């Protein structure tokens, strides 16, 4: 690490000062698709900063006062500002990648000035070069699998029969309900428990089937990819209650094989009779998910 | 124009999804990812980031809805963004903040009363 006193805690910018926001590192010093583009609102034009070893950083001067830790915390708590920042960041990185491989940096990677940015990035040079080598001629492809959720699989059984007082279906299914039902209710209770167990069995069978679909799609794509990452599937807030996302994966794919992967994965659409399976392939993405630099 | 990624079967995998058509959740989970972290001078707390993501996830469906309605303010320079869209989204934002507060309160009292309204 550089022996500087200017750590995050000491950062209190003067009025009108600028901070340096770094979006990505790449090999090309030619602005190309970046020419005339803006990055974050209120900042200066995008520029290319020369680094050691023929690397270039895509940077923008931004108003320092708006990019302190505290200011960011407040501003990014506003979904509208957050979305603007997210889309601006993504747009810059996407444009920067039109002329060759880039190493994308996370949202709001900021330095107090250009000198600091160059110093820190130069220390990472061998790592950055390794990642660029690995990403050259490859792109990220996203594969998501959704399965239509049958009504009975949306929630475990909840309705309790009147005969067993305040025992809930969940209690009965897990055997935690105290046996309060007297003899007259025994048959109804037994029938009820059988029904609950049957519903639970169906729900588990459906879950197992969905896991199998996810694994099959994942393995099909992974066989054609250099690397794979599985992300947490999006919840019903994003997918809607009728669709259950069972796979949210990203694959690093040689450009020459991208079409093959897309075709192979989409061919699985009809491979699961009896299940309402939707397979969604998107790309090419800048390889955000594959920047760790490990050689395959 | 390609279809938003939210709607499979309509998206053609051989086309490039421009930033304006990418699902916000897909963008966020990538740009907040811890893939390569160059220690900058200004840091955002990871916990904050997680909270941001939750907020955004509450927000995504309404953004997609707005987009389908032809509000495309994020496809232009933010400085030129449509005031009408901002007002609509600000209203939506207020509702979502209320929902988020409710969810957070719900998390703090797991044994508390059931939520008063269905937020799905």
Q: What's the short story on this structure?
A:
The complex is a heterodimer of chains A (296) and B (120). Helices cover 35% and strands 23% of the residues of chain A. With 296 residues, chain A is α+β, with helices and mostly antiparallel strands.
Written account of the structure:
- Chain B: Residues 82-109 form a coiled coil.
- The complex is a heterodimer of chains A (296) and B (120).
- Chain A is of the alpha+beta class.
- Chain A is 35% helix and 23% strand.
- Chain A folds into 2 domains: 18-136, no CATH class; 137-152 and 197-295, Alpha-Beta Plaits (2-Layer Sandwich), CATH 3.30.70.
- In chain A, strands 2-3-1-4 form a 4-stranded antiparallel sheet, with helices on both faces. Chain A has a 4-stranded antiparallel sheet with strand order 6-7-5-8, with helices on one face.
- In chain A, β2 and β3 (56-63) form a beta hairpin.
- Chain A is elongated.
- Chain B has helices at residues 24-31, 46-68, 83-108.
- Helices cover 48% and strands 0% of the residues of chain B.
- With 120 residues, chain B is mainly alpha-helical.
- Classes of the chains: A alpha+beta (296), B mainly alpha (120).
- At the A-B interface, α1, α2, β4, α3 and β5 of A face α1, α2 and α3 of B.
């Amino acid at each position: 690490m550089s022996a500087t006193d200017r750590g995050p805690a000491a950062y209190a910018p003067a009025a009108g000062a600028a901070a340096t926001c770094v979006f990505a590192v790449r090999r090309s010093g030619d602005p190309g698709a970046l020419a005339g583009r803006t990055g974050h609102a209120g900042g200066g034009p995008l520029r290319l900063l020369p680094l050691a070893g023929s690397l270039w950083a895509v940077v923008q001067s931004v108003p320092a006062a708006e990019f302190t830790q505290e200011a960011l915390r407040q501003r990014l708590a506003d979904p509208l500002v957050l979305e603007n920042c997210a889309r601006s960041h993504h747009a810059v990185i996407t444009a920067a990648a039109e002329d060759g491989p880039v190493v994308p940096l996370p949202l709001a990677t900021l330095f107090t000035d250009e000198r600091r940015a160059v110093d820190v990035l130069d220390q990472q040079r061998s790592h950055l070069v390794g990642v660029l080598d690995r990403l050259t001629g490859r792109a990220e492809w996203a594969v998501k699998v959704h399965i239509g959720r049958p009504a009975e699989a949306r929630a475990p059984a909840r309705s309790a029969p009147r005969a067993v007082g305040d025992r809930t279906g969940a209690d009965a299914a897990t055997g935690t309900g105290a046996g309060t039902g007297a003899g007259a209710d025994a048959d109804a209770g037994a029938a009820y428990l059988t029904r609950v167990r049957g519903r639970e069995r169906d729900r588990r069978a459906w879950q197992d089937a969905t896991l199998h679909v996810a694994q099959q799609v994942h393995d099909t794509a992974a066989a054609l990819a250099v690397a794979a990452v599985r992300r947490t599937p999006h919840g019903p807030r994003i997918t809607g209650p009728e669709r259950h996302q069972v796979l949210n994966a990203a694959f690093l794919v040689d450009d020459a094989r991208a079409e093959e992967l897309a075709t192979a994965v989409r061919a699985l659409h009809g491979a699961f009779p009896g299940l309402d399976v939707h397979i969604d392939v998107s790309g090419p993405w800048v390889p955000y998910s594959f920047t760790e630099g490990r050689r395959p | 124009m390609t279809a938003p990624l939210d709607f499979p079967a309509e998206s053609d995998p051989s086309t490039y999804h421009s930033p304006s058509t990418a699902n916000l959740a897909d963008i966020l989970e990538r740009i907040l990812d811890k893939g390569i972290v160059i220690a900058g001078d200004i840091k955002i707390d990871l916990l904050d980031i997680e909270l941001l993501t939750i907020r955004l996830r509450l927000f995504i469906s309404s953004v997609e809805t707005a987009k389908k309605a032809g509000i495309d303010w994020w496809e232009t320079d933010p400085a030129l963004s449509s005031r009408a869209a901002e007002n609509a989204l600000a209203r939506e934002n207020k509702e979502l903040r209320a929902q988020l507060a409710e969810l957070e309160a719900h998390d703090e009292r797991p044994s508390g009363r059931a939520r008063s309204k269905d937020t799905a």
